[in-house]
Write a structure and sequence with these properties.
about 375 residues; alpha/beta; Aspartate Aminotransferase, domain 1; Aspartate Aminotransferase, domain 2; 2 domains; 14 helices; 12 strands; globular; binds pyridoxal-5'-phosphate
Amino acid sequence: MSYMAQRVANFGTTIFAEMTALANTHNAINLGQGFPDFTAPHFMKEAAAQAIWDDVNQYAPANGRPQLREAIAQKMANFYGLSPDPQTEIIVTHGATEAIFATIMGLVNPGDEVIVFEPFYDSYLPVIQIAGGVPRFYTLRPPQWEIDEATLAALFTERTKLIIINTPHNPTGKVFSQAELALIARLCQQHDVIAMTDEVYEHLVFDGRQHLTLASFPGMAERTVTISSLGKTFSVTGWKVGWTIAQRSLSQAIFRAHQFVTFCGAAPLQEAAASAVSSPPAFYSDLTQFYAQKRNFLLDALRSAGLEPIAPSGTYFVMVDIAHLGFASDVAFCRYLTQEIGVAAIPPSAFYHNPADGAGLARFAFCKEEKTLEEAARRLQRLKSG
Ligand SMILES: Cc1ncc(COP(=O)(O)O)c(C=O)c1O
């Protein structure tokens, strides 16, 4: 007899764990899981060490250390012209992952419908299911990943409670446009729907494109939960410092869930996060340039290996069209690539409710040191003789 509760029984283990294990077994260069393999900014490590030496070692306030909430509010003002109240409208969480969990648990009732763009980040669906919500999918299609107004509008019903937007979007690299976000804003207001925007890649946008935050659209600040975190922007995915920004009554709902999930995140890391979030504009523009170079390098490497990458506008991922290569599925291709070529990628079918929709794609991460990417490029050349 299994002791496992039904609510988790069908979740399985994540594809990241499986591909990372396979990569390790075969000594493959891991371009699968999206974590940087380079060092974090020196000033942040010093700030974290200093906070520990200063004995910032006890529980943080449940909504986060005040310095961090104030720094987040200031950043929202600097980048997006928004002015959330750091006392009542910002909650610091244990990474964006907990922010997503607390938001959905705090806002979605059993039977409520939640609109999700797919491919989706892998935590959305299990959390919607735990909350008893009903997912309704909008399938983004390569190579443009664009949104068709009528198809999206048809997903809104009187039972729709929430729409989840992830921009810049993992895994496609899509950056939602002004027109697309305006359409979402209009539909949310028309149908009295709340938006949860996952913006963890907000500072990884290329080719002069601009990240737009839905909360800044007219009428949306009062119905949007904006989520972001430190992990991607500051190359510290293991620190797990994230946050939600939402008007007071939405924040209260999120807080009720958050207080019984973690109560608070790690206090000294929140202290260091406050200095990170207060970084000058040059930090963010340098980051964009740093990643734009890596993106271009990987795009060239993939093309020169005979693959067909779809250039991303944001994030640190590239999707590759593998449909014509003759593999049974994306999983078969990624296994072959890891075992025979020595480079691991992620099969995106795990990010679709109908896996067949992702079976012609593979996702590569470029948040890696130059030498890692160079070695991957060298190995990918083997595809030509394969
Ligand atoms: C779209 C998206 N949302 C959320 C997260 C999780 O963020 P965190 O590490 O801050 O929990 C990730 C991490 O890969 C992500 O890609």
